[in-house]
Amino acid sequence: MRHLIDILDLSVEEINEILATAEDIIANPAKYAHSCAGKQLATLFYEPSTRTRLSFESAMLSLGGEVLGFSEASSSSASKGESVADTIRVISCYADIVAMRHPKEGAPMVASMYSTIPVINAGDGGHNHPTQTLTDLLTIKREKGRLKDFTIGFCGDLKFGRTVHSLIEALSRYEGINIVLISPEELKLPSYVKKEILKAKNIPYTQTTDLLEVMPQLDILYMTRVQKERFFSEEEYLRLRDSYILTVEKLETAKKDLTIMHPLPRVNEISVAVDNDPRACYFKQVQNGKYARMALILKLLEVL
Length: 304
Ligand code: NCD
Hints:
It is a single chain. The mean pLDDT is 97. The chain has helices at 12-27, 51-62, 84-91, 107-114, 130-144, 162-171, 191-199, 211-214, 234-240, 282-300; strands spanning 40-45, 66-70, 97-102, 119-124, 150-155, 177-182, 205-208, 220-223, 259-261. It has 2 domains: 7-129 and 287-300, Rossmann fold; 131-286, 3-Layer(aba) Sandwich (Rossmann fold). It contains 10 helices and 9 strands. Helix 7 links the parallel strand 6 (177-182) and strand 7. A 5-stranded parallel beta sheet has the order 7-6-5-8-9, with helices on one face. The protein is 36% helix and 15% strand. The longest helix is centred in the last third of the chain and has 19 residues, at 282-300. The protein is an alpha/beta fold.
């Protein structure tokens, strides 16, 4: 039985296979309409979500399966003090696969140790978000036609942004990737990611606080939300919230074929006027998220 806790749980070959399946689902959705008939997905969300939870549910329904679960900790027995270990033992009796989001780093990993069904990490605190990474890789593949040889800028909250950590991990295994880290001093990429991934694998990277300065060199710009819920002080959040706001004017020096990504939700960091720019890909990313999760469910349930 396989879990997906960290994107590195999947080999590059497996990731490529999942992306190929996702592209086949896009081309031939009818072929997969009953692939998970009789199977149930449980979504255990201890933290707010729109896209991740609903895309998992939509993915399972489009595969002919069924879904159950909860969307807030307060409506589950977590509010009575039940441990993640006990909850997952219980869910293992009801469902065939589970997607879990939790505010505590490592909670889905703990769940996987007690589970008799595959556990998917749907975001654990400020740590990882591997299914967003599959979504992002599928988007890059479809937009750029390749998963190598590009410069990607990560902009915003690189400290708490779990989507950034997972995508950097994943990209460290592809060739010719150049990383530009753009953030305020206070929200720099954690040193463990720099040490264990970027330095350990000799990935070329630069750090800056100035988005405009690096804009012309980027093939992909990955914008992120400042993660309000992970701040200790409201004052600090308010001070850093609007560090970067991508506007039409700021894109003037960008490449014509730039790909603008954002895992969403967006707060203020991309002006709505940018949505009309053909380079804006964040709503396409949302659509890709459903296909990537369909392909992942098929893989973990060993349906293919
Ligand atoms: C992200 C997350 O939850 O980490 N959202 C998502 O799953 N698409 C990004 C965010 O919340 O800012």
